[in-house]
Write a structure and sequence with these properties.
The chain is mainly α. Helix content is 79%, strand content 0%. The protein contains 21 helices and no strands.
Amino acid sequence: MMENATIVAIVIFVIAYALIISEKVHRTIVGLFGAMLMILFGIISQETAVHHIDFNTLGLLMGMMIIVNITSETGLFNFLAIWAAQKVKAQPVALLVVLSTITMVCSALLDNVTTVLLTVPITFSITSQLKVDVMPYLIAQILSSNIGGTATLIGDPPNIMIGSAVGLQFMDFITNLAAICVLIFIITICILIVLYGNKLHTTDDLRAKVMQLDEKSQIVEPRLLKKCLFALAVTISLFVLHGQLHLDTATAAMTGAGLLLLISFPQKEAMIAKVLSKVEWLAIFFFAGLFILVGALVETGVIKMLAEEAIKITNGDLTATSMLILWMSAYASAFIDNIPFVATLIPLIQDMGQMGMTNLDPVWWSLALGACLGGNGTIIGASANVIVAGMAAERGVPMTFVRFMMVGFPLMILTILTSTVYVYLRYLM
């Protein structure tokens, strides 16, 4: 029998998600008000609610947004846009492939949020010059960022958590997940070309204009650019070494942001205000509210109860457990934040090992694939998705929940089907 607090928490959560999907109320308002209702009804205390906000994620977002906003003043993104377009002779379909590939590779080496913050401005710049619909490119970059993030230890937070809990190294993830992620990426891009290929057209005149552009002339602040590249190099170095240095990714991002502000605008208050005003505050506050909403479900035991009941179904069978974890984590990650869900599942899987299940490798890799790839199911399934949607909205291109889900969810199902075959053939046969 569920307690009243648990029932109220579920009701608030369901209503909040219904409002987000309906888009009758802005998701930031829904997230914040839903979070406050959880506190007002005594489901979760204010202190506990604050503890559930993942400030590492928020710090990472804010730090990288500051770096990107300052860098955008230099003209670098216009330069990269023209350079990339000229490499593929300004062909819209080829450009989709190139930008998606860049996004996937960068997401594997950095993280998916940082990657989209760097690549989305480039995408808007070049599509505006070619006068092609930007939406297919944005959807492709969201999907590519989450696929790329699945391939490495540092690409997506669930992988970091799994690696830490199990003692897996960077190369373990490369060895076990990189190949299937490349295959999934190729399948995804091929389908996107089939879906959007006929719509991605530009005129010969516009292509000719882009080919004639001098990309070097786009750099309007060369001195500032050098400072930005230096700060970005420091930030990326800290990202790569954060495990050895025992630093969180937020510390790396905020160090880079603080350094760049220090060397660029030490006393220019107006410029500092301009940079900070361009931070995606709507996304930041939405995440804060969402963390509290999910945190309330964690505190009332809803997520743990669901996970435990699901695992009971398999009766300890390795194949059944692996498949269940894969699909359950995919569906869950499409609709709720994957960080608390993975945090709940890790001790449960570890308990299975203590109960006599000797080979847990298939289960861990199933969890990583499901939790990371499941984020492609909806616009709120992963941090990168929300960030891209926010950046698009700021530029007058609303990315609705339903529009993204119509493409993202079927593709997510296909990627999980592919992962199912992979896990079975590699680990369970």
